[in-house]
Design a protein that fits this description.
Blueprint lengths: L12 H8 L9 H7 L6 H5 L7 E2 L8 E4 L6 E3 H12 L6 E4 L5 E6 L4 H10 L32 H12 L17 E3 L14 E8 L18 E8 L2 E2 L4 E2 L2 E7 L4 H15 L10 H8 L1 H12 L21 E4 L5 E6 L5 E2 L1 H14 L3 E4 L5 E7 H7 L4 H4 L12 E2 L14 H14 E2 L6 E4 L13 E10 L2 E10 L11 E8 L3 H13 L2 E2 H7 L1
Parallel strand pairs: 6-7, 17-19, 19-20
Antiparallel strand pairs: 1-2, 2-5, 3-15, 4-5, 4-14, 7-8, 8-11, 9-10, 12-13, 13-16, 15-16, 18-23, 20-21, 21-22
Helix pairs in contact: 4-10, 6-7, 7-9, 8-9
The protein binds siroheme and iron/sulfur cluster.
Iron/sulfur cluster binds next to loops.
């Protein structure tokens, strides 16, 4: 660690405990913790270091841990889903799973004494939880219909896996990248609709063609032909935090797919060795870019790469509105379809997970995918099996044609399990959408995102209507409330929404939302629609 990595005197508590013992050291202590029990464990190991292996102590439900997996590109097999289901099943009412806003899954109710067995089961089917929390790179997102979509520009699956393998030493843990100044998000878009929210990642790759130059060029662009060549424009520094939210900015770099892994490594090395570590509220990549300017940052990345970067392509290929993948769609493979099922607020129970695994095997190829909207996609359903698939009873709950608010609803964990939460989110979000859909008719989906606190895990800034938990006052009482965000635009010309109203008590929210939906999104009161009709 060099310059901005600080001296011992100015180290914050997180840097101190990381310096005392690397989080990854915990890998060798799981058996010991299982025997010891959570109450007798060293608190720093329990509350923080366990996150290096994806195990999160939940102060809201002490003794019942959460486990965060890694799902590169959001893809898993039916076998893996069944193992996840078995794990949560053993915890009865305490066990459930949540699909996350990073195309990933988290399991709940986990007991520390079961960890050795759980890790063995994960290992046997190629699942890993390593480096999924704290100062590590989070799940790497890719196009949820990669390899299926006839219009895709690049199949992101292999590349996402390669980056994860580099970062995690093929899932075993990699001390090279286990002590970053802060969390770090990476996304690769492969289609035309920016299905990964590239703009809110610390490092993102978006499809872009570059005109051939006919010569070798000076950078890592390699041999150029005259025809346009496919590559990615690179964005850096996007992030949300309680203090500050920024969309990613261009690095002014264009890279070939085969150079993406090396660029990820170089950017992470620069962040690891120079990123600010004194104040955790100012440790994300954008703070380093602020301090240096993007030119110096780019030059440091080039120096790590040992090669010059080519300037960005003049334009990227994100020119579609964002798709939600809910419904049934033809694949590029003749005779095959993918089905996107809406999983309300991403919550799954063991029996749902077994059933999803069964459907994926019986009707598809056994593959299951997650989206950043907390839904699932089952690919490779043949034309001949489609009609029977559509009669499956699971589709009554996990619909391919849900209501236009339900369809786009996203919610973070909230107060049920998260101690940062200022409000309950998931159950409240579902009840609110149900009430609004009962009273209103819609012509288009409206994307409503709930997030329980300013950390913004539910991404209210990308929503049509974003609701951020807060505490508010009414009649001398403190109540659960929300700040309302609007104007988030996804897909083509993505930009972040901003806060338009503060401190609406949750108990008064329904009429406020109803009004917003009527005035801004063309919703109509059912009563009125009937009269006009
Ligand atoms: Fe998050 C911390 C849940 C996506 C910004 N996030 C947390 C913790 C770990 C806090 C905690 O220990 O309780 C939450 C765990 C609650 C629980 O029990 O589930 C939590 N974050 C989530 C998930 C599960 C929300 C969801 O319901 O989908 C998402 C897991 C993604 C994954 O699979 O890894 C999740 N979190 C995000 C995103 C969205 C994204 O990545 O697109 C963001 C904003 C984007 C970003 O990070 O730039 C996000 N989470 C945060 C922050 C603020 C980071 C900062 O720089 O200050 C925190 C707090 C922190 O890290 O100190 C946080
Ligand atoms: Fe918890 Fe806040 Fe993140 Fe919601 S936004 S999961 S309440 S940290």
């Amino acid at each position: 660690m060099t310059d901005t990595a600080t001296t011992t005197t100015s180290l914050n508590k997180f840097e101190k405990f990381k310096a005392q013992k690397d989080g990854l050291a915990i890998r060798d202590e799981i058996e010991k913790f299982a025997a010891l029990g959570w109450e007798a464990m060293d608190e720093t190991d329990r509350d923080h270091r366990l996150k290096w292996v994806g195990v999160f102590f939940r102060p809201v439900t002490p003794g019942k841990f959460m486990m965060r997996l890694r799902m590169p590109n959001g893809i898993l097999t039916s076998n893996q889903m069944r193992v996840l289901a078995q794990v949560v099943q053993r915890y009865g009412d305490d066990g459930c799973a949540d699909i996350t806003t990073r195309q990933n899954i988290q399991l709940r109710g986990i007991r520390i004494e079961d960890l050795p067995d759980i890790f063995n089961r994960f290992h046997a089917v190629g699942l890993t939880t390593v480096q999924s929390g704290m100062d590590n790179v989070r799940n790497i997102t890719g196009d949820p219909v990669a390899g299926l979509d006839a219009d895709e520009l690049y199949d992101t699956r292999e590349l996402v896996q390669q980056i994860q393998d580099m970062l995690t030493n093929k899932g075993e843990g990699n001390p090279e990248f286990s002590n970053l100044p802060r969390k770090f998000n990476i996304a690769i878009a492969g289609g035309r609709d920016n299905s990964v929210h590239a703009e809110i990642n610390d490092l993102a790759f978006v499809p872009a063609f570059k005109e051939g130059t006919g010569d070798r060029g000076q950078g890592i662009g390699q041999e150029f032909s005259q025809s346009p060549i496919f590559g990615f424009n690179v964005l850096v520094g996007g992030f949300f935090s309680a203090k500050r939210c920024e969309a990613a900015i261009p690095l002014n770099a264009w890279v070939l797919p085969e150079d993406v892994v090396a660029v990820c490594r170089a950017v992470l090395e620069v962040f690891r060795d120079h990123g600010p570590r004194a104040n955790r509220q100012k440790s994300r990549l954008m703070w380093l870019i602020d301090e240096w300017g993007v030119e110096k940052f780019r030059a440091e990345v080039e120096s790590r790469l040992g090669e010059l970067l080519l300037p960005a392509a003049a334009k990227d290929e994100i020119d579609w509105e964002k798709r939600d993948h809910i419904g049934v769609y033809k694949q590029k493979q003749p005779g095959l379809n993918y089905a996107g099922l809406n999983i309300p607020v991403g919550r799954l129970y063991a029996e749902d997970m077994f059933e999803i695994a069964r459907l994926a095997e019986v009707y598809g190829s056994g593959e299951i995918r997650f989206t950043v909207e907390q839904n699932i996609v089952i690919p490779n359903i043949s034309d001949s099996r489609l009609a029977t698939f559509l009669t499956e009873s699971l589709l009554e709950r996990f619909s391919i044609d849900p209501g236009l608010l339900t369809r786009s609803l996203v919610s973070c964990t909230g107060a049920q399990f998260c101690n940062f939460a200022l409000i309950e989110t998931k159950n409240r979000a579902l009840a609110m959408i149900k009430a609004l859909e009962e009273d209103l008719t819609f012509t288009n989906p409206v994307r409503i995102h709930w997030t329980g606190c300013p950390n913004s895990c539910g991404q209210p800034q990308v929503a049509d209507i974003g609701l951020m938990g807060t505490k508010t006052r009414k009649n001398g009482k403190t109540l659960e409330g929300v700040d309302i965000y609007m104007g988030g635009k996804v897909g083509k010309d993505a930009h972040l929404g901003t806060c338009v109203t503060k401190g609406i008590p949750c108990e008064d929210l329904q009429p406020v939302l109803q009004d917003l939906l009527i005035k801004n999104f063309g919703a109509k009161l059912k009563q009125e629609a009937l009269l006009v009709g």
